[in-house]
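Person: I keep going back and forth on a fold encoding question. Show me how you would write down a chain together with its backbone fold. Please set it down just below, with no commentary around it:
Helper:
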Amino acid sequence: MKTLLLAFAVCLLTLNPDRTRPDPNKEDVKAIQGTWQARSVEVGGVPVEEFAKSCQLVWDGEQFQVMVNGQLQDKGVVTRRDAAKNPKEFDFELTEGPSKGTKFIGIYRLIDNTYTSCFVMAGDERPKEFASPAGSNVVLNILKRE
């Protein structure tokens, strides 16, 4: 009887569809790797065109570097990611640079070679849509893969 129950348990484990389904977080981390050039940056509904022209985001795993005019501006790390939510959510913290220790919460999407993120400092309400309303503290970035 024990052998039959063990065989049944093994069958259930091997038939579980969740075991073979790719982890959306791992898939997004893999897809985002590399260098991204900012195309558009808005803060509180105001375009920051000069910054966008000079800004790159370089991903390595869950760590990233913000480069401005080819110089390191900040380093950070994603501390939480939920790619199963709609919109996808992430939290990150800056680990080096002038804003070291600052934490942010936001949403993101990856469509082909376009990465869009929308975020605020932790403590504010996480954005629900990809917009930077006038007068808000919401940052909206649109980047293209290099």
Summary: The domain at 2-145 is CATH 2.40.128 (Lipocalin). The chain has four helices and nine strands.
